[in-house]
Write a structure and sequence with these properties.
The protein is α/β, with parallel strands linked by helices and 308 residues long. It is built from six helices and 15 strands.
Length: 308
């Protein structure tokens, strides 16, 4: 809750790791991930749209995203979306492979073309962007499809590379797109999780990025959404100064009924959040570890700054 500025309640619907799966039919009532997705001001997709790229798969995915009831639909790639990472894809296909070059171009054109834009779809690479909504809210979002090296997939970086924070010494090289510090970002949307936050694998190993964790704590966004680790589905609310973690515990019946897990954090709700003091983290992976779409989308209500 902001005490010094006018704010606007804004609803986010969040999904990730859909891996070629569109929402189930509306009568598939054993799945929360079914048509239609919950209405929202903003739909966020945190990547792994596909299993392994391919234009025909992106076309099917774009169709249901475009049809979703959200004014703004922000999409990033994940490590499985290999042909959205041009350098990776051309290196593996052979840089002289004209078919690969054509596919990379067609895939990117699909996500950034006039049909997608007219439906409110915005595909983002790594960086910072600001949007103003029809409800009068404005917000700044940091996005990144990158995650620590994971086998030989797209958008990977070495585990000892810090691409999210300014260097500690002037002599050290600066990353291309560091995360801004508080209070300059409202929402973070990354494919990979920060270390120690909804990042535990089935074996219990925490595989999130320690540098992303440092950046998120320095940035203190209202909301940080991601996926990548299917077993980590859930939501947590971290109070930075006290170091407390509150885990969201949505009821299964309500998730099936509402087609989502719901977390209210707006000023008129039961537990308003305080910007700069706490952050809501959401792992919105739709797939479980066996690649079945059994997890629910998340719906989160937060207060954003009113546009001037």
């Amino acid at each position: 809750m902001d005490s010094t500025a006018e704010t606007v309640k804004t609803r986010f619907c969040i999904v990730s790791d859909t891996h070629n799966h569109s929402p189930k039919p509306s009568d598939a009532d054993k799945f929360a991930y079914r048509q239609p997705l919950p209405s929202a001001d903003v739909l966020l997709h945190a990547g792994d749209l596909t299993m392994c790229g391919e234009l025909k798969e992106y076309k099917k995915i774009l169709k249901w995203i475009m049809a979703s009831d959200a004014e703004l639909k922000i999409v990033i790639a994940g490590n499985h979306d290999i042909d959205l990472h041009e350098e990776y894809y051309l290196t593996h296909a052979g840089e002289k492979d004209t078919i690969a070059r054509k596919q990379v171009r067609e895939v990117k054109d699909l996500w950034t073309g006039p049909e997608a834009r007219s439906a409110g779809v915005v595909y983002l690479d790594e960086g910072v962007n600001t949007f103003t909504l029809k409800n009068g809210a404005t917000f700044t979002i940091y996005t990144s499809p990158w995650q620590p090296e994971f086998w030989d997939w797209a958008f990977n970086y070495p585990h000892d590379e810090d691409r999210f924070n300014p260097p500690s010494k002037a002599s050290e090289p600066a990353p291309a797109n560091p995360v801004p510090s508080w209070p300059n970002v409202d929402v973070m949307l990354t494919h990979g999780p920060p270390h120690g936050i909804l990042d535990a694998t089935s074996s219990g190993e925490m595989v999130g990025c320690k540098f992303l964790r440092n950046a998120s704590q320095r940035c203190r966004p209202r909301l940080h959404c991601f996926g990548h680790i299917h077993e980590g589905w859930g939501a947590q609310r971290i109070q930075w100064e006290r170091g407390t973690i509150e885990k969201a515990t949505p009821e299964s019946e309500q998730m099936l009924k509402n087609r989502s897990a719901y977390l209210p954090a707006h000023k008129d709700g039961p537990a308003p959040m305080v910007f700069g003091e706490e952050t809501i983290f959401v792992n919105a992976s739709i797939m479980n570890i066996n690649y079945r779409p059994v997890n629910a989308p998340w719906v989160v209500d937060i207060d954003l700054r009113a546009s001037v």
